[in-house]
Amino acid sequence: MFPDLTRDDVFRIETRRLWLRWPAAKDRDAILKLAGDPAVSEMLARVPHPLPAPVVDAFLLQARSENAAGSALTLALARRAAPATAIGVVSIEVGPDRMPELGYWLGKPYWGAGLIREAVSSLCHAFFAYAGGTELAASARSVNPASRRVLESCGFQHVGTGLRPFPARGADLPVDRFRLDRRRWQMLESEPAMTEAA
Q1: Domain covering 4-196: architecture
Q2: Are 95 and 137 in contact (CB under 8 A)?
Q3: Left (φ > 0), alpha (ψ -120 to 50) or beta: where does 160 sit?
Q4: What's the rounded Cα separation, in Å, for the pair 176 and 172?
Q5: CA distance 61 to 68
Q6: Where is the N-acetyltransferase domain (predicted)?
Q7: Which of 158, 171, 177, 178 yields a CA-CA distance of 20 to 30 A from 146?
Q8: Local structure of 125: helix, strand or coil
Q9: Residue 123 has what pLDDT?
Q10: Which residues are 165's β-sheet partners?
Q11: Is-contact 134 186, C-beta < 8 A?
């Protein structure tokens, strides 16, 4: 799914305020603390609470393996001022219906500053511009309007609602489903006001 360009751990995307880089062992403690926060984990399908260290270790190994194979792209978010400190994660991997699917989380101390929108927009750009993507899916729990706003601000269009498995929550939960296709992405890329918004 992803080209050779992204398959080396020196690959990174730089935005105005962030580095999106391969996750590394040094991110373990930050991920444990930030993703393990119930306010974050309760919105995520695969992150249990409490979050055990072996789950984070397995996540880091799997993310790096899939990045190297080009079957997915998972990047840790770090502020440019502190590139060694992870504050969240953004990824594109093959979803249950075999369509590439966007996922993300941001640590609670960093909410409200537009950082996740900046990261999502940049990863979508990489997917369509470098990986030749044609369509990208995403979903957000119906009780998470902030996540919905992120997707809508990045050009995703609402395509319906439904239930989705949330293994870490022990149930299928209601989600809003979204799509972004290449044509819409190209249209948005040609509108500077949309791409420059933080």
Answers
A1: 3-Layer(aba) Sandwich (3.40)
A2: yes
A3: left
A4: 13
A5: 11
A6: 17-157
A7: 171
A8: helix
A9: 98
A10: 172
A11: no
Strands of the 18-21 sheet, one edge to the other: 12-14, 18-21, 73-79, 86-94, 100-106, 135-141, 171-181, 157-166
Token pair 């969240």: residue:
88
Q: What burial class does residue 125 get, using C-beta atoms within 10 Å of its C-beta: 0-12 exposed, 13-18 middle, 19+ buried? A: middle
DSSP reduced 3-state for 195? helix
Please tell me the distance from the alpha carbon of residue 121 to that of residue 118, in angstroms, as a whole number: 5
- Name 179's bridge partners: 137, 157
Average pLDDT of the chain? Answer: 95
At residue 22, the 3 state secondary structure works out as coil
Cα(174)–Cα(141) distance, rounded to whole angstroms? Answer: 6
Structure tokens at 32: 């444990």
How confident is the model over 101-146, as pLDDT tens digits? 999 999 999 999 999 999 999 999 999 999 999 999 999 999 999 9
pLDDT in tens, 56-73: 999 999 999 999 999 999
What CA–CA distance (Å, rounded) separates 83 from 129?
Answer: 24
Q: With beta carbons less than 8 A apart as the criterion, state whether 52 and 32 touch.
A: no
